[in-house]
Amino acid sequence: MQQCRITLKMFNYLNTYDMSKSNDRKFFEAERTLADEIRDSHKAMADLWQGITAFQETKNCVTIYGSARFKEGHPYYELARSMGKVLAENGFTVLTGGGPGVMEAANRGAKEGNGMSLGCNIILPFEQKLNPYIDKKVEFEFFFTRKVILRKNIRVVRTVYKRLHYSVYNKPIKCYKM
Predict the structure, then answer these.
(1) What values do phi and psi take at 38, rounded to 5?
(2) Which of 97, 88, 94 is nearest to 69 (CA)?
(3) 26-29 contact pairs (CB < 8 A, 24+)
(4) How many whole angstroms separate alpha carbon 109 and alpha carbon 117?
(5) What is the pLDDT of residues 94-119, one digit of tens each?
(6) Same domain, yes or no, for 45 and 72?
(7) How many CB atoms lie within 10 A of CB 153?
(8) What angle do CA 43, 95, 114 make, to 5 degrees?
(9) Over the chain, what HEC string results?
(10) Which domain, by its residues, includes 17?
(11) What is the phi/psi pair of residue 117, to 5°?
(12) Fewer CB within 10 Å, N or C, the chain?
């Protein structure tokens, strides 16, 4: 039986976890041990803890969801950038997934509007990197914990994701008021 070592380091919200050391690839295998389950549950708890503590003082926050695929000059990039700027000029904090594309544009606009720009980045081995327009960041190992934190601290929700989803996939998605 595999041994599980749980340390206080797992709860240190300043540390992020290296996906190459995680057991995510084996998550759905039948041979997962109790130690595997305990380790991954503690990693998820650490993700949530760092997100909660990092943004606990955040007020008037607007979360902007969007595609990482749109580059500067694209109409959706420019829309998110101007939206981030207007929100910041009106006293709102802008929170995004922290990556490129629409997320970068919204964070960039917030910086241009002299506002607070936050990012909840996902740690991926080859893809998403944190954009340079973030004042405060949290990096997550799990997508579901990132989604929880993206929704937790917001008091107002505005999204370009619905419109972007339709333009990319040509079918609408349902959005619910919080």
Answers:
(1) -65, -45
(2) 97
(3) none
(4) 9
(5) 999 999 999 999 999 999 999 999 99
(6) no
(7) 20
(8) 135
(9) CCCCCCCHHHHCCCCCCCHHHCCHHHCCCCCCCHHHHHHHHHHHHHHHHHHHHHCCCCCCEEECCCCCCCCCCCHHHHHHHHHHHHHHHCCCEEEECCCCCHHHHHHHHHHHCCCCEEEEEECCCCCCCCCCCCCEEEEECCHHHHHHHHHHCCCEECCCHHHHHHHHHCCCCCCCCC
(10) 8-54
(11) -125, 120
(12) N
On whether both 95 and 145 belong to a single domain, the answer is yes
Phi, psi for residue 143 in degrees, rounded to 5: -65, -40
- pLDDT tens, position by position, 10-53: 334 334 444 444 445 556 677 888 998 898 899 999 999 999 99
Query: Residues 107, 23: one domain?
Result: no
Are residue 141 and residue 117 in the same domain, yes or no? yes
Residues 160 and 77 in one domain: yes
